[in-house]
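Problem: given the chain below (82 residues), write out its structure.
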Amino acid sequence: MKKYLKEIEISGLILTAIGVGLSYIKSIQYGVWPCGIGLFLLLLIFLYKAFHWKEYERENKQYIMIILICIFILILQMFKAR
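Solution.
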């Protein structure tokens, strides 16, 4: 698992960015799934690194901020769609 962390992380970030971009360009319907899958991948990486906190402390703090910002953007988009 450790050797695939970077690939999973990059995939999660790309999917999250695509989802946020699609929700701005098209609508929330198109952006939710890629963003949700990307956030799920980032969550998996965060959980793995949380169990190894001493080794990945700096990255964990960054992941917390990234996930909170993306969730905040999605919540704003959901209220905007109504």
